[in-house]
UniProtKB/TrEMBL annotation:
E.C. designation(s): 1.1.1.40
Cofactor(s), names only, from the UniProt record: Mg(2+); Mn(2+)
Keywords in alphabetical order: Metal-binding, Oxidoreductase
Protein name: NADP-dependent malic enzyme
Keyword field contains Oxidoreductase: yes
Domain Malic enzyme N-terminal: 18-151
Signal sequence, renumbered to the chain: none
Positions of transmembrane segments: none
Length: 613
């Protein structure tokens, strides 16, 4: 990741239109009629409907997709109490993340009020505008009381993300790290360094998941939080340990199974990590400097399971994996709250996603070939496009099952489609293509069966039921790769085109090709040699009707692939030209672009052929 300089950060925020968010109209406004409908006199009609039935605000206004990100600026990132206005760039940034990851609109609200009672009254007064409230960067212990009262007194979802976002993501990471380590949550000893809002919420959620309070030691900036201390507030007193013989982090961490750091950088050293139990779990979440660096922790012992809050190391505990999708599920069910059931549903959905095969778009974003569940990947990446469906659906289901939903979702399959369409991952066209393919699955040859992307694509296509995949390649290499990626080859045909058992088929294909290209001087021996090449063999499968489609291109230049297609399959007699077409999906519509690669400066006849094709 490139180093972020002060100059670059200030330029990013100031260039063009200052800030990071804007309001965009969602209805037509080009005519006088449009404007009369948008405002006076037409706007009176929905006003009257909402007066009769306040729930109709979700029907006629943006309330159902609008979240308030509200802060008083008393605990902004690692900057501390810098004031409400100074924290505005952070709140705008949170709004940007809501929008790009879950399609949720945000108004950032900076309230210049430190008194909890007055702050609560201000939030309550503006709450009717919103479908949900995300509290942000409010210092402890005031944040606990503010959130508690707002949840009690409002009928929309309220969540302090600094508490619960970190708790949800780290809990998912903990469950998976324990699975990798072969440990049970009820047995592990946990040391928590830090006693602020995030630390308290994380630890409480761990207990909900099965951790035992007596196995937890928490430290604040002074020492171990123990029963013999007289300076504890209610939040800290809950975690006070009976072990009054330990006072420092060095003493507390001996034999511990997990370290959770939500404090400050460089407080954990290598000797402390070495003193932990086998396969220790170290979540060093202080930012930008963790409690121990990734390099130092991994160098201390080989069995460390490490997570940080940074994107440049494996297993990032990043709230963006959670809050957009938690609010998405809550908004779409018009939930009255975000309750424990919904948070736990998010935990298990996030944990489960890390165990599924990783899409290529994620691998490519992190410049790796095959992220698989294990020590270096037990938390999903923020760019994973499946989060919007996995987490939002889990949260929505929990809202309905726990009784806080005011709107039921009748079809989870349709809801999944809507979520994918919302984010531009799917369109009506692609859905129609999928549905058509499922009704009549075709035989599709995948040329580079030994490449991770091609193998995963074939298996995904099989699991979606859209084709009968045929992989070309060495059986043993493909099986080994599948084992490495933890993928099942059940239902996938493998053809080792160079094996002796395919000699008869190669010879048959060679005779067909030689006869077809005889006028160009092709011989059987030349054609037979070509049958050892993936593209010739695969396209001959299509030409002979032994397959219906052929996918290639990872190891072959496009021009070479087209040359083989023209030679083996050819052009239909009624055409003189062939072309290519790209489908471009946008959130608003789908475009077909042709011809994009073959015919440069096409004349009229060429363009007519392309249009007919």
């Amino acid at each position: 990741m490139a180093k972020i300089t002060k100059e670059a950060a200030l330029l990013y925020h100031s260039q063009g239109k200052p800030g990071k968010i804007e309001v965009v109209p969602t209805k037509p406004y080009s005519t006088q009629t449009d404007l009369s409908l948008a405002y006076s006199p037409g706007v009176a009609e929905p006003c009257l409907e909402i007066e009769k039935n306040p729930q109709d605000a979700y029907k006629y206004t943006a309330k159902g997709n609008l979240v308030a990100v509200i802060s008083n600026g008393t605990a902004v990132l690692g900057l501390g109490d810098i004031g409400a206005l100074s924290g505005k760039p952070v709140m705008e940034g949170k709004g940007l993340l809501f929008k790009i990851y879950a399609g949720i609109d945000v108004f950032d609200i900076e309230v210049d009020e430190k008194d909890p009672d007055k702050f609560i009254e201000a939030v309550k007064a503006i709450a009717p505008t919103f479908g949900g409230i995300n509290l942000e960067d409010i210092k402890a212990p005031e944040c606990f009381e503010i959130e508690r009262r707002l949840k009690e007194e409002l009928d929309i979802p309220v969540m302090h993300d600094d508490q619960h976002g970190t708790a949800i993501i780290s809990s998912a990471g903990l469950l998976n790290a324990l699975e990798v380590a072969g440990k049970k949550i009820e047995d592990v000893k946990i040391v928590v360094n830090g006693a602020g809002a995030s630390a308290v919420s994380c630890t409480k959620l761990y207990i909900t998941l099965g951790a035992r309070l007596e196995n937890i030691v928490m430290l604040d900036s002074k020492s171990v939080i123990s029963n013999d201390r007289t300076d504890l507030n209610d939040q800290k007193r809950y975690f006070a340990t009976n072990r009054t013989n330990i006072h420092t982090l060095e003493e507390a961490i001996k034999g511990a199974d997990m370290f959770l750091g939500l404090s400050k950088g460089d407080v954990l050293n290598q000797d402390m990590v070495r003193s932990m139990a086998p396969s220790p779990i170290v979540f060093a979440l202080a930012n930008p400097t963790p409690e121990i660096s990734y390099e130092a922790a991994m160098a201390s012992r080989p069995d460390v399971l490490m997570a940080t809050g940074r994107s440049d190391y494996p297993n990032q505990i990043n709230n963006v994996i959670g809050f957009p999708y938690i609010f998405r599920g809550a908004l779409d069910t018009q939930a009255k709250a975000i309750n424990e059931e919904m948070k736990l549903a998010a935990v298990h959905a996030i944990a489960g996603l890390a165990k599924q095969p990783v899409p290529d778009v994620v691998n490519e974003a992190y410049k790796v070939n095959n992220l698989t569940f294990g020590p270096e990947y037990f938390i999903p990446k923020p760019v994973d496009p499946r989060l919007i469906t996995e987490v939002s659906i889990a949260v929505a289901k929990a809202a309905m099952q726990s009784g806080v939903a005011r709107k039921n979702i009748d079809s989870w399959e349709d809801y999944q489609v809507r979520l994918r369409e919302l984010m531009g991952y799917e369109s009506k066209l692609t859905r129609q293509l999928y549905d058509t393919a499922r009704r009549n699955p075709q035989r599709v040859v995948f040329a580079e069966g030994v490449h991770p992307s091609m193998l995963k694509a074939a298996i995904e296509a099989r699991s979606e039921g859209i084709c009968h995949p045929i992989l070309l390649g060495n059986d043993e290499r493909i099986q080994k790769l599948a084992d490495e990626l933890d993928l099942s080859l059940e239902g996938v045909e493998i053809i080792n085109l160079r094996h002796d058992r395919e000699a008869e088929r190669r010879e048959r294909y060679a005779h067909i090709l030689a006869e077809k290209r005889a006028r160009e001087g092709a011989t059987f021996h030349e054609a037979n040699d070509k049958m050892f090449e993936r593209n010739y063999f695969g396209m001959m499968m299509v030409e002979t009707g032994e397959a219906d489609a052929f996918i290639t291109g990872i190891y072959t230049r496009y021009s070479n692939t087209i040359k083989v297609a023209k030679e083996v399959i050819g052009i239909r007699p009624e055409y003189k030209h062939f072309g290519t077409m790209h489908i471009l999906n946008t959130k608003k519509r789908t475009y077909f672009l042709a011809d994009t690669l073959i015919n440069r400066h096409p004349d009229t006849d060429t363009m007519i052929d392309i249009a007919k094709l």
